[in-house]
Write a structure and sequence with these properties.
The chain has 11 helices and 8 strands. It has 285 residues and is an alpha/beta fold. It has an 8-stranded parallel β-barrel, surrounded by 5 helices. The protein binds flavin-adenine dinucleotide. Flavin-adenine dinucleotide (FAD) binds next to strand 3, strand 5, helix 6 and strand 6.
Length: 285
């Protein structure tokens, strides 16, 4: 089964997210991580997309490798920002012709290096429509339990998210640390008449400074208790990993007990924490 909508319809889905490598060393680590995590039998894996610069092509390369050389179902991420319509058409048709059946359609953010590129689309909804026009993709979208950082208020953010989920097959959330934030979002979507499955994203952080930076950028609140624990392990990689495993395991348990349709683990291209979380949660292999 390789359409994510079918996977979700069949039962809980346990997926992994990777990022395209930016150097030969990172390429080597990703190859090793993929080999180590494939035996877990994830329901699918996804590969992020850098709106500008070198990782644009790297995403397609990693996706092609996973699709052709592994047993894993793969989903590329794609952003509207910094792309013209013809560029997006070429990328999507490339995936379609390769036999890729899933796509995560994203608005995206302007490139961090300040480079400006022409963008024909403003919102993820336009990319969903394009993907559906060009192929029979199972399309996912991003969801933000704690609101998208650029949203002026929760009500409008939820309305836009609901509109997006009405067009898509499933959602995947930004990471968060409090299960209640996820369940509140699901309830608010239900009140708007939307029950499209939304997979909670769980963040296996590996570095304290990076975890705080990502949380700041993505508007994810780090609870006070976790802040203190992060302070204590800062600069000690094995202890950071142990804390990440503990936090992700506890969060995963709460999410699954509360009826989440599965889990999506942000691996940061490392395997060990993911394997430990998988084992702790007794996820199917
Ligand atoms: P949109 O759905 O377009 O929303 C963006 C903002 O516009 C929101 O504030 C929304 O409320 C508002 N909005 C939506 N529609 C309208 C409308 N019609 N009128 C007015 N306002 C509107 N980024 C990457 O660069 N590469 C990745 O690979 C990547 N992967 C991600 C994976 C996941 C699971 C998640 C949660 C995020 C990911 N991101 C990635 C980050 C994402 O691209 C950014 O957060 C981006 O700012 C928003 O993307 P979106 O798809 O939610 O955008």
């Amino acid at each position: 089964m390789s359409r994510i909508s079918d996977i979700l319809a069949a039962g809980p889905s346990y997926s992994l997210e990777f990022g395209p490598p930016r150097s030969p060393e990172q390429e080597e680590r990703l190859a090793k991580t993929l080999l180590e995590l494939e035996p877990l039998g994830p329901s699918f894996v996804s590969v992020t997309y850098g709106a500008g610069g070198s990782t644009r092509d790297a995403t397609a390369k990693v996706v092609g490798h996973i699709h052709a050389d592994t047993s894993m179902t793969v989903m590329p991420h794609l952003t509207c920002v910094a792309h013209t319509r013809p560029e997006l058409v070429a990328i999507i048709e490339g995936y379609r012709d390769e036999g890729i059946e899933n796509l995560l359609a994203l608005g995206g953010d302007p490139p961090e290096d300040g480079t400006t590129y022409p963008s024909d689309f403003a919102y993820a909804t336009e990319l969903i429509e394009l993907a559906c026009e060009l192929g029979d993709f199972s399309v996912g979208v991003a969801a933000f339990p704690e609101n998208h950082p650029r949203s002026p208020d929760t009500a409008s953010d939820r309305r836009h998210l609901a509109d997006k989920l009405r067009l898509a097959d499933f959602g995947i959330t930004q990471f968060f640390f409090e299960a209640d934030d996820y369940f509140r979002m699901v309830d608010e979507l239900a009140a708007l008449g939307v029950d499209t499955p939304v997979l909670p994203g769980v963040f296996a952080f590996v570095n304290v400074e990076q975890a705080r930076r990502f949380a700041r950028i993505n508007g994810a609140h780090i609870p006070d208790d976790l802040q203190r624990r992060l302070d204590r392990v800062d600069g000690k990689p094995p202890e950071v990993r142990e804390l990440a495993v503990e936090v992700c395991t506890a969060l995963g348990e709460r999410l699954m007990a509360g009826g989440a349709p599965g889990l999506h683990l942000y691996t940061l291209n490392f395997s060990r924490a993911t394997k430990d979380i998988w084992a702790n949660l007794d996820l199917p292999r």
